[in-house]
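Q: Could you fold this chain for me?
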Amino acid sequence: MALIAWTEKLSVGVAKIDKEHQGLVDLLNSLHDGMLAGQGKDALGPTLAKLVQYTERHFAGEEVLFRLHAYPKAAEHKKEHDALTAKVKLLEIDYRSGKSALTGDLMTFLRDWLTKHIMGVDMQYKPFFAQKGVK
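A: Sure. Below is the predicted structure, expressed as structure tokens.
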């Protein structure tokens, strides 16, 4: 059962970013499916590590677009990226060290984090990139 279903309402109108967001959705769904199947730390650890790496690459790519097109809210958006990256890294460290487990509450946090980031912060640049002709 999918934790998040990708819909067009999550689209920011930039194909590369949308594809990466879909990849993040897929990773969260994979992590959720593994948790529901009772897979252990050895199985879920690599998926969580991929989520951290994918998030870092995705945010770096967005930030390149911000610089290329002089997005006026770039600094504010980057602060959001830095905070979210730090949270996900801490989750991975805590999971690997046994301080926390992948629970329904944690998966809900990750789902909400991703959807709120896309629907809230990322949607702010949608009209800007559309006006610049970035697709």
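A (continued): Residues 41-69 form the longest helix (29 residues).
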